[in-house]
Amino acid sequence: MATIRCPIPGTFYRRSSPEAPPFKEAGDAVAVGDVIGLVEVMKTFHEIKADQAGTVVAYLIDSEDPVDAGQDVMELA
Amino acid sequence: MTGGRPHPFRKVLIANRGEIAVRIIRTLRELGIGSVAVYSEADAAAPHVRLADEAVLLGPGPVGKSYLDRERLFWAARETGAEAIHPGYGFFSENAGFARECAENGLVWIGPPPEAIEQMGIKTEARKLMEEAGVPVVPGTITPLGSAGEALHTARSIGFPVAFKTSGGGGGKGFHVAYGEHDAIASFEQSRIEGERFFANGDVYIEKYLEDPRHVEVQVLADTHGNVVHLFERDCTVQRRHQKLIEESPAPTVDAHTRAKICEIAVEAARAVGYTSAGTVEGLLVGDRFYFLEMNTRLQVEHPVTELVTGIDLVREQLLVAMGEKLAFRQEDVVLRGHAIECRINAEAAHKGFMPWPGLITAYREPAGPGVRVDSGVELGFKVPSFYDSLLAKVAVWDTSRERATARMLRALSEFELEGPASLVPFHRAFLASRQWADAETGRDLLLDADWLAATEPPAVEPPAAAPPAPAPTAPPTPDGG
């Protein structure tokens, strides 16, 4: 199973703002460098970018869930 | 705050966390006043919870469900019988609405009058007020710009470079510099968009952009009987993303003449808004020209350097003023002695663009010894949450001169053991040992030098080797405490 890992700890978001659509949905193509999530850590926001290409199977984490560095956040096919 | 006869508090609730909550609890204990801490689930094991006489759980980690939950805070005050609320810095400290709600809930607000917070909180209003009071401000407009066309026209008349700022902004958001006609409109639009997004206010105003200024601020203190004094200045020029990292007092480039002038300006500014309690008048210094920037209507993170050079406990004075007492000293009694420096120990990796990195503290020993003061909100075994500001501790030192204080700070930092989260200890050790610091330059060249910052990386590997490289951080959406 190919996964994208989150490089930093914090709070994970699947969308850029509450009104925005998710960065990716199941079946979407992912290219290296695509933004797949946002992490809030100590009042700063950081875009999480794909380090590999593939097709989204599913997010492995919900919005507003805590995330650890190195945790799998997206499964790719 | 309301004047009248002095009324000593028996119990005070601290609507804050971390090092500033610990700081306030200490002074309360010295005054024989009971302390009530509040905390989130993420802070259950934090030192401020243990050190207070009582502690009340507010809710889960996110600030909206804990430290910014007004109803829960007022409930905690009622349940514990607290008579007053100290807001610390950040959170509700500059929220006039909250200050009024305290009064409505029968609680004394330990801070300035809500009207003064409002007048200084809206930056265009503050500029207007200061101009009317004869306080110099950076050349610019005091009414919001109506259009991109007006922005360009005004920029031409002021002269490039110019800075666009949002009315409700702070912490670097909404702040954009235009160096010429080619980027004026884009910078204006960027400020407007960020103002709308982060502060729900698209008003933009323009100022002359001062290149490589020093950031100098004056501490003031006022009681409810009309007495206003200043406690001299601090230099807070060393910043990253418009947030302070190192502060000192006195300012190294300010001579006696300029000091007298800027301190007088600060007292005038405080009088102009009927200020009470502790506050700070911030400005930019270019040569010996001081321009008003804003007034921070609260206690500031860097207040210890002023306490070290004047011997005055600012938190104690805030409490006495809130109890209706007169200041026990006059201006001529406030004496500036020696030199103090403070380094903010944030959970950040300077070598990765000041990336915040929280985590479990696995090794911890604070510096001590002659002339060293540590204000901290963490300890060994505490898991630093990711929900809050990255400030873990502040190291402040006092000595007879800047040179000696620098040597003392370097010695103190060499004693500081902190492992687990990232920390700015290695950054401060490198910065304070630099020629730029010794020559009292602004050091912006070092802060913008990625190679120099990269070289501050500590020898031990902290992040898990499995993790891919961290992305570059963006500026935070909310201002910090000072």
Describe this structure in words.
The complex is a heterodimer of chains A (77) and B (482). Chain A has 77 residues and is mainly beta. Chain A has strands at 2-5, 10-13, 29-30, 35-41, 44-49, 54-59, 65-67, 72-76. Chain A has a four-stranded antiparallel sheet, with no helix packed on it. Chain B has three domains: 11-110, Rossmann fold (3-Layer(aba) Sandwich), CATH 3.40.50.20; 139-208, Dna Ligase, domain 1, CATH 3.30.1490.20; 214-454, D-amino Acid Aminotransferase, Chain A, domain 1. Chain B is built from 16 helices and 22 strands. The two termini of chain B are 23 Å apart. In chain B, 52% of the residues are buried. Chains A and B meet through strand 5 of A and strand 16 of B.
Write a concise synopsis of the structure shown:
Chain A is mainly β.
Distance between the termini of chain B: 23 Å
SSE order of chain A, as H and E? EEEEEEEE
Task: Please give the CATH class of the largest domain in chain B.
Answer: Alpha Beta
Helix-residue proportion of chain A: under 10%
